[in-house]
Amino acid sequence: MLFSMRLPILGMGLVVAGVAGLTAFEWHDPVNGALAALALILTLARLLVLQLYWRDRPIVDDAQLRHWERRYAIGNYAFALLLAALNINALTIHQPLLHLITVSLVFSFGAGVVSRISIRPVICVVSLLLATVPTAAALAVHAFIPHGAELHSELFAIEALLVAMITALSLQTVAHLYRSAVVHHTAKHDLAQLARYDALTGLPNRLLLRERFRESSLAAAQTETRLAVHFIDLDGFKGINDRHGHPAGDSVLQQVARRLEGIIRADDTVARLGGDEFIVLQTDVGHGDEAEMLARRIIKQLSAPYEVEGEPMRISASVGIAMMPDYGRDLEELLSCADAALYRSKGAGKARVNFCTREDAASARLAAA
Predict the structure, then answer these.
(1) Per the domain annotation, does 17 fall within a domain?
(2) How far is it, in rounded angstroms, from Cα 219 to Cα 225?
(3) Shared-domain flag, residues 174 and 243
(4) pTM to 2 decimals?
(5) In this structure, are 17 and 136 located in the same domain?
(6) Which whole-number Å values give the CA distances from 362 to 264, 330, 354, 356, 369, in the listed order?
(7) Domain containing residue 72
């Protein structure tokens, strides 16, 4: 958001340089001439920072992001001080129209930073104060300088008060916009969590499983390795629900989820499809024996006793495995194949593991048709 401000930065920089340069030429003012040159240099430097940021994207390291944010902030602070200097110098020229324009530039700058970067309140507030506080102070001091014009002191004092009041209102707006942005992003994050994670166990759901599978399948194609899709079903889980109630069943499912997370590697994924059905996506599989070894570990870990409110409970697990690319490259196809292998595991006495076969794949395609 900070680094998509090319047009506002360019526009404000050219206007400030133009005003300062025109007045320097018309009234032979060297200070405004220097400010005009500085405005152009500063604008080019700020645009260069934006360009370098987009060149280095994507940036995922927090330290690097903070580094780029500091660069942006320094440019903003420098431009705010430039505006304050332009206003202070405009008071020495005694041209009402020029003074009106330079104060308007401060208001425009303040409105811009408040509306666009309030999500970064420190940068926003510091930039606003650097532009407005020196301007208001200069107006207040100028009000006490004797001048022949009528209501000179009174009007400049009122203008100083006006700048101070608008600054205070702008600070309140920054706080409001920041709180609103935090609420918005929090709600957006929560919705994304709900859309991709199972509410009971906190595991990825089918949607996130598809996304992880897509990423993992691309990586497997590049490294010429295989993926293993483990379809897991809990044996005896229905009995827990029937005898002890659904709260006990929910507790067991949560414990199953934590055990599965403790078994898999960082690059693997464990997901819950619903009910007592879980999926483990095993990446970087060189040989089927690796998948079988993981499946047997899963069965052993999930068959260990559980405890719910001090009462021991036991279940077991059956597993069906489908290998990619042996039985397809589509997740749904592999899930169907693994489910067919799982059916054979449960039929053979439960707590078993079976790999998908050509017959399983054929029956899965027939069932899908």
Answers:
(1) yes
(2) 8
(3) no
(4) 0.61
(5) yes
(6) 30, 15, 16, 10, 11
(7) 6-195
